[in-house]
Amino acid sequence: IAAPGTSQHIAMLAFDCNEFHDQRVRKILAQHGWFQTVLSDLPHFTFLGLAEEVLPSRGLKSIEVAAQTFWIPEVG
Asked: Which residue in 69, 8, 9, 5 sits closest to 35, CA to CA?
């Protein structure tokens, strides 16, 4: 949970998508730079504004959970 006033939702850099289980929806969102980034918040999509192929070079790694790909920071 973000501190008051710091939510990516308020800044319009994130939204929750009810159709997050639908692979077609995730594909369309990814084509426009939106990706799932929070393992504990399945409907949460964050605007990264990049093509999926570029994400690893920006320090993100993909993790597959229940046929969904999450992009999270590569740490350690």
From this structure: 69
